[in-house]
Design goal:
The chain is of the alpha+beta class and about 250 residues long. The protein has one domain: Creatinase/methionine aminopeptidase superfamily (Creatine Amidinohydrolase), CATH 3.90.230.10. It is built from 4 helices and 15 strands.
């Protein structure tokens, strides 16, 4: 079921999103070579709890951690652990904040130490693709308009868009309808309405888009070993267009 949010509910989600955005801003200076992915997870969890919020991912379908920390060829749902970050790595940190019942969801990618030219280009393309998708997220447009804008740009840069993992509705629970693919045909799919709150979260690979699953049943990685990057915002569809609820400074 798709829930349409009131202005009051959107404002509450924006408060939640401000907590999450602030954590991503802090991670810019925190992430460096020598840290383990578990240290990043613990940093994020401490910040969420200090804000009086809940780490919504913990316990979701049995997931045990406050974050997903996906490195290099890991597309998404990487488990934080003992892996030590090294110079040139690409890490994606994804988390969901529940603040007084209001949800926000955002993943951001970080170059560890000095970014290689490939990592830098991949990050630039993926972030731009996110915002091209957001531009299409307005009442009257269709879900396919978002995916088409993202796919067309990404493929023009020689990269591919992951198909198996997509954006979604959010609030009052973490994952709701509608599904938001990052590929597709313009003018097709569900029509967007004022009051919808969704995530747009393109995952972009240097190689082919197909993935494979680790034995843990959660972590997806590129089938060909290529790098993968992701940027994600939670947004609301309003009269004025897309309103980013997890906007960083």
């Amino acid at each position: 079921m798709i829930t349409l949010k009131s202005e009051r509910e959107i404002q509450a989600m924006e408060e939640s999103g401000a907590i999450l955005a602030g954590i991503h801003e802090e991670l810019r200076g925190f992430i460096k070579p020598g840290l383990t992915t578990m240290e990043i997870n613990n940093f994020v969890q401490a910040r969420i709890e200090a804000a009086g919020a809940i780490c919504e991912q913990i316990g979701f379908e049995g997931y045990e951690y406050a974050t997903c920390t996906s490195v290099n060829d890991e597309i998404c749902h990487g488990f934080p652990g003992k892996y030590v970050l090294k110079d040139g790595d690409l890490i994606k940190v994804d988390t969901v904040v529940n603040y007084n019942g209001a949800m926000s969801d955002s993943c951001w990618s970080y170059a560890v130490g000095e970014a290689t030219p490939v990592v830098k280009h991949l990050m630039e393309v993926t972030e731009k693709a996110l915002y091209l998708g957001i531009e299409q997220a307005k009442a009257g447009n269709r879900v396919g308009d978002i995916g088409h804008a993202i796919q067309t740009y990404v493929e023009s840069e020689g990269f591919s868009v992951v198909r198996e993992f997509i954006g979604h509705g959010i609030g009052p629970t973490m994952h709701e309808s509608p599904s938001i693919p990052h590929y597709g045909d313009a003018g097709k799919g569900l029509r967007l309405k004022e009051g919808m709150t969704i995530t747009i979260e393109p995952m972009v690979n240097t190689g082919a888009w197909k993935s494979k699953m680790d034995d843990n049943g959660w972590t997806a990685r590129t089938k060909d070993g290529g790098l993968s990057c992701q940027f994600e915002h939670t947004i609301a569809i309003t009269k004025e267009g897309a309103r980013v609820l997890t906007q960083q400074k």
